[in-house]
Design brief:
- The protein is an alpha/beta fold.
- The chain has a single domain, classed as Rossmann fold.
- The protein is built from eleven helices and eight strands.
- The chain is globular.
């Protein structure tokens, strides 16, 4: 996993994986928000639904994709032809492309071996047509999730202030580092009731990682709790489209700026 940023230039094909130890921490909403925010900054972005069993990016965005990852793996279409444009697509500022998953597919949830390798290498190749690809991974640390995370240049682990979120996020980082001892995922505290609460949660997570993994995580950003977020999910649209002045929108834009500038800015 290549985690060092080029400080002065943007490398085409950079892959950002967004993970979480447990479900329900807002990982997919964050992935969508990051795709939109980075595109608004001028990057061409591909958003990939890497939750192979419970994909839902298409639902959250109100899409009806003509093809998805299942169609690609079955050989019916190529990865390039399976993407769906959102907000006029990746060639428009503020728009991006989506490679949808296939919800409820047991075959995809249990993908392994050559199928998983084909998907990982295909996404890596397709990402070269964009400034950045964002992988919205499944919650947890199963084999497919870790394999896809290891293809990324950068990994974000999403936590909140719940104890189970912190313990499950630690389990993900531990598993990732068992496969790559140089892996150093960034941390985002999502749905934070306050910045103080976010820093307290991160502090507990950081202490655990330092004590048991000899690893000091970096806090990349805090997304504050905001009623505009569930409202955008219900409306099946991007948060910044529905509520451009919301505090969570501001936080997503700040996080996107941090990622665009590089790890040194985190």
């Amino acid at each position: 996993m290549k985690l060092a940023h080029a400080p002065q230039s943007r490398a085409a094909g950079r892959i950002l994986a967004i993970a979480s130890g447990k479900g329900g921490v807002g990982k997919t909403t964050l992935s969508i928000g990051m795709a939109r925010a980075l595109s608004q900054m001028g990057e061409s972005v591909l958003l990939v639904d890497g939750d192979l069993g419970m994909a839902n990016i298409d639902v959250q965005l109100g899409l009806q994709p003509h093809s998805d990852i299942s169609s690609v793996l079955n050989g019916r279409v190529s990865l390039e032809s399976a993407v769906t444009p959102v907000l006029e697509g990746a060639q428009e500022r503020g728009g991006f492309d989506v490679l949808s998953g296939h919800s409820g597919s047991g075959a995809l949830a249990n993908l392994s071996g050559t199928g998983l390798t084909k998907l990982a290498s295909g996404v890596a190749a397709l990402s070269m047509s964009y400034d950045r690809a964002i992988l919205d991974l499944a919650a947890g640390a199963d084999k497919a999730t870790v394999r896809l995370a290891l293809t990324a240049d950068d990994v974000i682990i999403v936590i909140n202030d719940e104890p189970t979120s912190l313990t499950d996020a630690y389990a993900f980082v531990k598993t990732l580092r068992l496969h790559d001892d140089g892996a150093s995922p960034l941390v985002v505290v999502n749905n934070a009731p306050s910045r103080d609460a976010a820093h307290e949660a991160f502090g507990a997570f950081k202490k655990t990682c330092e004590s048991f993994l000899s690893f000091t995580p970096i806090l990349a950003g805090v997304i504050r709790r905001d009623e505009a977020v569930p409202a955008a999910v219900r409306a099946q649209t991007c948060l910044s489209v529905r509520s451009p002045s919301a505090k969570a929108t501001e936080d997503l834009q700040t996080l996107a700026g941090t990622l665009a500038r590089g790890r040194e800015a985190a």
